[in-house]
Amino acid sequence: MPVDINELVELRARHRTFDGAYRRTALANLGYSLTVLRLFDVRFYRTQILS
């Protein structure tokens, strides 16, 4: 339990920072995975990335 207003503000800031980092990481991983999946798409076989 927060004792005073400053401690409450600090706890809220930490929580927002953690949530923001979690969301950014999730979006970055989603973007990376979509890029990797596109490499294995049939339309990209002609680029000779995959032999």
Task: Characterise the protein shown here.
- By secondary structure, the protein is an all-alpha fold.
- It has one domain.
- Helix content is about 70%, strand content about 0%.
- It is built from one helix and no strands.
- The longest helix is centred in the middle third of the chain and has 35 residues.
- It is rod-shaped, with a radius of gyration of 21 Å.
- The termini are far apart.
Termini gap? 60 Å
The succession of helices and strands, N to C, reads: H
Helix content: 55-70%
Total beta-strand segments: 0
Individual helix count: 1
Mean pLDDT: 81
| Radius of gyration over all CA atoms, rounded | 21 Å
Uncertain stretches of 5 or more adjacent residues: none
The fraction of residues assigned to DSSP E strands is under 5%
Largest sheet: none
Dominant shape: rod-shaped
- Secondary structural class: mainly alpha
Number of domains: 1
Helices, strands, pairings?
Elements (H helix, E strand, L loop, with lengths): L4 H35 L12
Descriptive labels:
single chain; 51 residues; 1 helix; 69% helix
Quick summary:
With 51 residues, this protein is an all-alpha fold. It has one helix at 5-39.
